[in-house]
Write a structure and sequence with these properties.
Residues 108-259 form the DDE Tnp4 domain. The protein has 319 residues and is of the alpha+beta class. The chain has helices at 12-15, 20-27, 31-43, 59-76, 86-98, 160-166, 168-174, 209-232, 247-263, 303-317, and strands at residues 3-4, 9-10, 49-50, 104-114, 134-141, 147-155, 184-186, 190-192, 195-197, 274-276, 282-284.
Length: 319
């Protein structure tokens, strides 16, 4: 059976015999979306030919296939994960404004990608709070669950805030490349060109419950996005052996597929977010979104963030 893995291209005549259920159960997408992706990658030019079939493929051939598919996706869809501009930016901002957060550009959070103990690396660096080896992925999403930015690679022991400061996202924000929309005036004379909605982790006064509830409702997009992404590509739900050099590119490639499937309007099966535990009881799967063991105190938050937080809470309280 001829197979061009680099272009994610198998002879499509083989797929003609597959049922709709096959694509739904195995690939979590419709046949026409799969064919669109395959044809786009084929047109990208890079190919890898192998005589192996997709069933019973050896480990070495499997690693080559993953590498080549990842490379093809990153090449063919290099702009599929991008910071929104113009009309798309206006749509994103309008959606957040309707939720009570004017000039908000997205929601941000981290998720753990569980791995087996990495070779040739200090294992303790990758040991997280749940005593599992992991790498963290920082992701920004909009309210449609589309990935706008992704940054992967820091060990599971690294704090979310430190990852933000080390990420390319922070550098681009500091350079004035991200929050370029006209400023919005908030109560107390606060002016903001834009911000990302994160988990506050700050103890709040009862009078700010309205703000807290709205923040949790808007930020639910992050958990739903991680649920959809990891639920469809379940490799990232479990500890698995991986190549630490290529893992970031593989996760970005999955985020690209995630956006393609959303753009195609393919629904998500919520049953993928449930599993039967060792005790036989049905439970939600662990998405690797570990909250801090204790809330941050006010003094540990930046002054600008607290000022913005107070202004948004005041604005909501007067509406």
């Amino acid at each position: 059976m001829k197979r061009r893995i680099g272009g994610v291209w198998e002879d499509l005549r083989q797929c003609d015999d597959a049922t709709e259920d096959y694509f739904k159960d195995k690939l979590h997408m419709s046949p026409w979306v799969f064919r669109e992706i395959a044809e786009t990658l084929w047109a990208s030019g890079d190919t890898y030919e192998s005589g192996t079939c997709s069933f019973g493929i050896g480990r070495k051939s499997g690693l080559v296939a993953v590498r080549d598919v990842t490379s093809a996706l990153l090449s063919a869809y290099r702009d599929k994960i991008s910071w929104p501009t113009l009309l798309q930016k206006a749509v994103v901002l309008r959606a957040f404004a309707d939720k009570g957060f004017p000039n908000c550009h997205g929601c941000i959070d981290c998720t753990h990608i569980f791995i087996e103990k990495p070779a040739n690396c200090p294992g303790e660096d990758y040991y997280d709070k749940k005593r599992r080896f992991s790498v963290q992925a920082q992701v920004v999403v909009d309210l449609n669950l589309c990935v706008l930015d992704v940054f992967v690679g820091y060990p599971g022991s690294c704090h979310d805030l430190r990852i933000v400061h080390l990420s390319s996202l922070w550098a681009r924000a500091e350079a004035g490349e991200l929050f370029t929309w006209p400023p919005v005036m908030l109560p107390f004379g606060v002016r903001t060109n834009g911000y990302l909605l994160a988990d506050s982790g700050v103890s709040q006064h009862p009078s700010e419950i309205r703000f807290d509830n709205k923040q949790k409702a808007a930020r639910g997009a992050v958990e739903r996005a991680f649920g959809r992404l990891k639920g469809m590509w379940r490799l990232f739900l479990r500890s698995h052996k991986t190549n630490m050099e290529t893992l970031p590119q593989q996760f970005v490639a999955v985020c690209i597929l995630h956006n393609i499937v959303i753009d195609a309007g393919i629904s998500f099966d919520d049953n993928l977010l449930w599993e039967v535990g060792p005790n036989g009881v049905r439970r939600k799967v662990d998405l690797g979104m570990h909250r801090p063991l204790r809330q941050m105190c006010m003094e540990s938050s930046t002054g600008d963030a607290l000022i913005l937080w107070d202004a948004l809470a005041e604005r909501m309280g007067t509406q």
